[in-house]
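hey
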């Protein structure tokens, strides 16, 4: 069974240090960079959710934008279309993400490897198409706008986002340290041996898929009120690819690697868009360079250096 060596960063300590840094951002950064960091924090949580399935369970998903987008749209629909208030809208979004995760996971997990990955992509594009065409509910290609932001200003809501994400990170860390969380890694390393010793591999994989989707969905739920709007782009396959990019950028064998990768991604993308219209090409070159030079990701490479392995 894979042990704690998989988690290269001491979760609680690393989360505490990151939290201390993140909570000071509004003190010295203006509204633009405060919002940018908040987006990065949410992207990071989405990547951590993806990595529960990929890094810890060994299943590659190309459809995690589906969970992010459903979370964002669930809150937006609840607020704008149904007038449910934030509690009711978050409950609606959570139920939506959970239901879709269970349904798509049940069918997708009949296969593994590339077939699983392609099924997740297909389901994500199906959900994207439904929301794009269902204009009365989703606003179509224009999306939904005018979402009220709790506490008013970006700076105040920033603290809500950071605290909520830190709580989620601690909860995910604790879960992955339980016997069930360690079972994810056992199945990743050798699913056939895990089945022989008595693990219900199919059910555990489904649980990993659902937990992974819920974490990414919660990030999406916080994103729509932060931005005050949600558009179909949040469900498109390119954002699923971006989530994969974030996880690889930070390192999938480090607990906080995908989280830091999400923050780095936002700033790299923002800089690339400022300097060239071919920013996607720049991002592709960066990804190729990281995979070639730092196969364990930026954070993974840093941890190896600190241990004297690099």
């Amino acid at each position: 069974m894979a042990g704690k060596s998989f988690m290269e960063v001491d979760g609680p300590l690393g989360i505490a240090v990151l939290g201390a840094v993140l909570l000071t951002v509004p003190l010295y950064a203006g509204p633009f960079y405060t919002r940018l960091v908040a987006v990065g924090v949410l992207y990071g949580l989405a990547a951590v959710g993806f990595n529960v399935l990929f890094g810890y369970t060994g299943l590659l998903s190309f459809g995690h934008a589906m969970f992010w987008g459903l979370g964002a749209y669930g809150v937006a629909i609840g607020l704008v279309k149904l007038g449910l208030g934030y509690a009711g809208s978050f409950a609606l979004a959570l139920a939506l993400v959970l239901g879709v995760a269970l349904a798509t996971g049940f069918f997708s997990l009949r296969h593994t490897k590339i077939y699983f990955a392609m099924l997740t992509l297909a389901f994500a594009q199906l959900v994207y198409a439904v929301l794009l065409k269902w204009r009365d509910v989703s606003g179509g290609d224009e999306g939904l706008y005018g979402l009220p932001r709790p506490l008013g200003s970006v700076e105040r809501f920033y603290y809500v986002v950071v605290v909520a994400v830190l709580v989620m990170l601690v909860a995910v860390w604790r879960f992955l340290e339980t016997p069930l969380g360690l079972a994810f890694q056992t199945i990743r390393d050798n699913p056939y041996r895990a089945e022989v010793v008595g693990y219900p591999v199919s059910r555990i994989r489904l649980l990993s898929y659902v937990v992974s989707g819920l974490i990414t969905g919660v990030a999406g739920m916080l994103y729509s009120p932060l931005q005050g709007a949600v558009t179909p782009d949040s469900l498109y396959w390119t954002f699923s690819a971006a989530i994969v990019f974030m996880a690889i950028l930070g390192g999938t064998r480090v607990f906080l690697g995908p989280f830091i990768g999400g923050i780095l991604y936002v700033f790299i993308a923002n800089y690339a868009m400022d300097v060239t219209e071919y920013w996607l090409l720049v991002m592709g070159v960066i990804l190729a360079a990281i995979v070639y030079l730092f196969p364990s990701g930026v954070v993974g490479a840093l941890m190896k250096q600190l241990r004297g392995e690099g």
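Residues 201-227 form the longest helix (27 residues). Residues 1-9 have pLDDT under 50 and may be disordered.
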